[in-house]
Amino acid sequence: LSEIFSKLIEKIRGVEYIDEATLQELSREIQRTLLKADVPLDLVKSFTENAVKRIKEEKPPAGIPPREYLIYVLYDELVKLLGGEQTPEFKPVKRPYVVLLLGVEGSGKTTTAAKLAKYLAKRGYKVGLVETDTIRPAAFDQLRQLAERIGVPFYGERDEKDAVEIAKRGVQNFRNMDVVIVDTAGRHRNEEALLQEVKAIYDAVGPDEVMLVIDATVGKLAAAQAEAFMKYLPIHSVIITKMDSTARGGGALAAVAKTGARVKFIGVGEDVDEFEPFHPRKFVARVLGMGDLDALVEKIKAVFEEEEVLEEIESGKLDLLTFKKQIDSLLKLGPLSKVFQLLPGGIAAKISEEQIELSQKNLKKWRAILSSMTREELKNPDVLNASRIRRIALGAGVTPKDVKEMLTVYENLRKMSKTLKRQLRLRMPR
Ligand code: GDP
Ligand code: MG
After folding, report:
1. Which of 27, 152, 172, 229 minimizes the number of CB atoms within 10 Å of its CB?
2. What share of the chain is helix, strand, coil (3-state, %, to 5)?
């Protein structure tokens, strides 16, 4: 997956400037890339439309090159495509928490049962594994051996033919565990018979979470698969396996996200450890092959915050609360020398290197001071008397003189904010 996306990123990085023709070309490239990842056509279309519209309408924040902003928009839209900012959690909220694993034959259920068990055991949960696949005789030994390898208790009945009975006794057997994972068959006389059986198991054990296991290599067909199961019983979450062995994983993820089901984990290899929670954000950053993406995203967010703060100053609302926000976002933006480069030329030229270094140190001190103030004090600095200043200094681990110095800077800034206003308007025409 990251291979097909890295070409796209390379292209974008090679772009000199973004005009209509370049944008056209890029959007075609984005479409090609998404189709290669087997993302459903309707999603590809709306994705590209959205992205192009954003790139045309949104102005990159000050200091962010348009090219980098384009990558950011792409990243942002991809995250949305794959389910948004959600961080899926697996929380066994009762004891025992019964998990039912479903999926077609070969999707990776049995392997996933062991992977999930290991994942949870590592986090301190007591886990039991139950095998109910009576159709494939090898399934019993497969899960038993995996259970042994990861050191988790196993329940199965080699000679019982009724999967529902095994499930009931298995869950009963593990009633003192934190989590019971019930593996099921993926094949039957026919599809109808299979779905009837898992429905019967569902009715018999009343699982707390039904997890559907889907093989990533089916790509966009994952949606139809999920919907077929959803007709018979509720699907609470999805696990996509074999993300390591196909370029179509993106399509599978997008298709599942479209159905409204939540992907909680992905399988990334045959080994029991090759399994991880699915975070759209982290996943997309990795696919785009950008270790520095997080830094870029943070920076862009900080610049947006910074602009909000500047707007507040513009509208004449410079109290200490705004001052604090300003400092927070300045600290997030990183080395101050870079921040000052973003300022209108006139101001930057007047600031010396030493001043920059000094302010960098001061910012941290000031943040500590501001954090020790009450909201009332931030809103209304006039109430700050000697005893309050002493208390604040003590809380921030600085001297009262430091507090007074900061207040002087703030006071000067407030006086300056009128001139600042004019300069800001020059910088950010709206
Ligand atoms: P089941 O029929 O649904 O129980 O599927 P199995 O658990 O028996 O897995 C079928 C095959 O898929 C096995 O060869 C597994 O090793 C393989 N498999 C499962 N998960 C993954 C994965 O995340 N990556 C890869 N590469 N192979 C996997
Ligand atoms: Mg199996």
Report:
1. 172
2. 60, 10, 30
CATH number at residue 171: 3.40.50.300
Task: Please report whether residue 386 resides in a domain.
Answer: yes
Pocket flag, ligand 1, residue 157 (CB < 6 Å):
no
Residue 193: predicted pLDDT: 85
* pTM over cut 0.80: no
Residue-wise burial string across 378-414, b where 16 or more C-beta atoms lie within 10 A, e elsewhere: beebeebeeeebebbbeebebebebbebbbeebeeeb
The ranges of the chain with pLDDT < 70 are 289-317, 329-330, 332-359, 416-430
Report which protein residue has its CA nearest ligand 1's atom 14.
270
pLDDT on residue 429? 37
Q: What is the pLDDT of residue 313?
A: 63
183: buried, middle or exposed (CB in 10 Å: 19+, 13-18, 0-12)?
buried
DSSP string, 15-51: -SS--HHHHHHHHHHHHHHHHHTT--HHHHHHHHHHH
Question: Which atom of ligand 1 approaches the CA of 111 most closely?
Answer: 7
Q: Give the Cα separation of 269 and 315 in Å (integer).
A: 55
Extract the tokens encoding 350.
Answer: 């007047």
- Amino acid, single-letter form, for residue 64: I
pLDDT of residue 355: 62
Parent domain of 321: 293-427
Q: Which CATH number characterizes residue 70's domain?
A: 1.20.120.140
109 lines ligand 1 (CB under 6 A): yes
- Give me the helix-helix angle, 66-81 and 2-14, nearest 10°: 150
Q: Which of 238, 253, 283 is the last residue of a domain?
A: 283
Q: Probe ligand 1: pick from 214, 241, 246, 268, max atoms within 8 Å of CB?
A: 241
Same domain? For 136 and 277 the reply is yes
Point out the domain boundary residue: 229, 260, 283.
Answer: 283
In the chain, how many domains are there? 3
Q: Kindly give the distance from the C-alpha atom of residue 139 to the centroid of ligand 2, in angstroms, as a whole number.
A: 5
Question: Both tokens of residue 414?
Answer: 């407030």
Adjacency order of strands within the sheet including 237-241: 154-155, 127-131, 179-183, 97-102, 209-215, 237-241, 263-267, 275-277
The Cα 211–Cα 311 span in angstroms is: 47
ipTM exceeding 0.95? yes
Identify whether 92 is part of a domain.
no
What pLDDT does 83 receive? 87
- Tokens describing residue 378: 């931030």
Counting ligands in written order, the one closest to the CA of 215 is 1
**How many angstroms separate the CA atoms of 208 and 180, rounded?**
10
